Amino acid sequence: MIHLYQMPSASPNIRKIAMMLNETDLPYTVKQLENQEDGKLADDFLVINPNATVPAIVDEENGAVIFESGAILHYLAEKSGQFLPDDLKERGEVMKWLMFEVANMGPTMGELFHYLLKTSNEISEVHLQRYREKVAQYCAILDRQLASKEFLCGTYSIADIALYPWTVILEDMAEVNINDYSNLSNWASRIAMRSAALATA
User: Fold this and answer.
1) Cα distances (Å, whole numbers) of residue 9 to 166, 175, 192, 201
2) What residue spans in the chain does CATH classification 1.20.1050.10 cover?
3) Would you say domain 2-80 falls under CATH 3.90.190.10?
4) Are the beta carbons of 132 and 112 closer than 8 angstroms?
5) Out of 30, 87, 162, 178, which could bridge 101 as a Cys pair, Cβ 3.0 to 4.6 Å?
6) CA gap 63, 113 in Å, rounded
7) pLDDT digit string (tens) for 128-154?
8) Whole-number Å distance between alpha carbons of 195 and 164
9) pTM for the whole structure
10) Which residues are CB-contacts of 68 (< 8 A; sequence separation ≥ 6)?
């Protein structure tokens, strides 16, 4: 049994792990955590993730404790034998797009969300626009990658699972219209119809 630690509000990072668990049919339970008054998670959770962020998982079968969404996706792919190719070259393709999400789209959207919570006196529109433009740039990159592919690496993989949840909130958070990127929009629509995505909507 896998225990998924998350917050009540399903962030894209949490959603991607729930999608992966639903895609693989691995048995799991959800452990809901609550913020303390200072915004930090309970001290006992630090044993699971010293960085005090969610998601994180604990695998009862072997005692593995994994945090960081990219690492969790990779672990679940290895455990289930799904959504990560055996061929070294194909695996490398999936891993580089997974790292693209981990290093670019995820952190940029996270920073944008952080600054959107600030008052107008604390953050300028110039700074917000910088993050929005970076998100639009990433969307253009993904759109080009999907020009001749149904999924990012040809077949559905953990790279698609990692990036999809961010597209759901593109317009609300980054003021980016996904319909301006037809290949990306079609890709997102295909994933949105998968039962695993519908279950976490």
Assistant:
1) 15, 21, 19, 12
2) 88-194
3) no
4) yes
5) 162
6) 34
7) 899 999 999 999 999 999 999 999 999
8) 14
9) 0.94
10) 102
